[in-house]
Amino acid sequence: MSISYEALADLRSKSAKDALSPDSSYIKIRKQLDLSLKNGDVTRAAICYQQIGDILFEEGAMSQALSYYHKADGYFKKDTSLLNLGNNLNRIGRIYFKNNRSATALANFREALRVFQIEGNHRGIAESYGYIGQVYEQKGAYDSSHIYQELALSEFKSLNDKSQIAFTYSRIGSIYEDQGKFQPALKYFLAAYRIYNDGPAKVELAAVLNNIGDTYRKMGNYLQALSYSKKAELLSARLHDNRQLSSAHRDLAKTFEQLGSFDSAYYYSEKSRLAYSKSYNTDSEERLNLIQTLFDVQRKDNEILQLENKNRVSQIITISVFVISILATFLGVSLLSRQRLKIKNSKDLYETRQKSMELELHNKHLHQEGLKAELELRSKELTSITLHMIKKNEVLEELKSKLASIVKDDKRDQRKELKQLLEQIDVNSNQDKNWEDFRVVFEYVHKDFFEKLIKHSGLLTTTDLRFLALLKMNLNSADIATMLAVSQTSLRTTRYRLRKKLQLPEEASLQNFIHNL
């Protein structure tokens, strides 16, 4: 069985892991964190929080890791550099992705992408594209997943980052493998293998060897499957990576089973189980040590806090006795004046709070008015774009009709040129850059509309989304047909097909479904 898509991402973080054990790394970073907080170094403290979150993430302590990432996020938002914030958003997104909360993960990845695009950081853009593609693969939207992975690949190629290029090839291969398209999957796995094979032996090479062997097995090429799985086995053993070794043994067992060599299949199945057990025990031991270290550090922090509180209480008691003795001397004289001052302060405080509340309400009103005005402006802009596209297609249709009449004329020497012109008009009527302008403005006015549609049905094409967007705007069938450059008959066919894709009951209205979405 090939290594999973999520496990590929884990390999990247594992390969960059510190040489120290997780608990030793935690103690080292915790000391740096305490020093940074003491010195008021906000940026360094945020990085320490993020590093602790990375350790916890790699050890599977997701909720604790998320807590530390959120602490880092609070500090990074105060920093002038947005790059740290973008990287932290991607880390938070990974947590939600691991817990199958696709919508929240996607929101964090998209926000990280926006930050990196503002900063012009192509590495961050590439990584965000890859994470977004990963979410779509989890949701089964393979076309969207493939698009985002190709975008990531393009960015990594512009950076000439061979390691990331190879890793993205493996991601795309996994998408094809999930769809049962083994030939293109093999093509991408082999492309990743060629890059990894030129460098030093590492876990990523063992993983892609496992993928290639498993893909050959699924294609029925058992000799090639055995060859690559054996290479993965030897490399994993040399690297002392029991997880990849277990995967190689499992693939060998399956291949021998397909060949009818059941003794060999049983032999490798047992070896896979033993390797997995070693990997699990090692991970469990490291996780247990880390948890124990976290507990010890927390206990010491609590003891220090209790001691500090005890000392503080003693000081407070001493000061309080002294203050009370002084106050008792002047209490009788100052009682009346303090009462008057209290009344005055209460009145001033009331007036200040009242003014503050009025100012806050006024600011909220201005903000709401601004949002309302901007939405109205966007709506007008959307209507303007739509009318422009309808008018343009109407003109093209009229021009097509006139040219068609000319073609029917007896001037046969003009027919070829006029037919070419008709074909050009057909192309231009469907490929207008205004569709992109329309999409941008439409998504602002109808937020998350396309995302909700794709979540409801991953079968929707770009043309389907355009039709449903026009339907959302309450355009009549004639205008929709004009904008899409199709006939009324084709439009009815499109409606019927969309009802099937959206799995709407016969009595349900497509129009009502779109408006209630």
Automatic annotation (TrEMBL):
Residues 404-431 form a coiled coil. The chain crosses the membrane at residues 316-337. The keyword Membrane applies. InterPro entries: Sig_transdc_resp-reg_C-effctor, TPR-like_helical_dom_sf, TPR_rpt. One of its GO terms (molecular function) is DNA binding. One of its GO terms (biological process) is regulation of DNA-templated transcription. TPR repeats lie at residues 166-199. It comes from the Bacteria. Keywords: Coiled coil, Membrane, Repeat, TPR repeat, Transmembrane, Transmembrane helix. This is Tetratricopeptide repeat protein. It comes from Dyadobacter fanqingshengii. The lineage of its organism: Bacteria, Pseudomonadati, Bacteroidota, Cytophagia, Cytophagales.
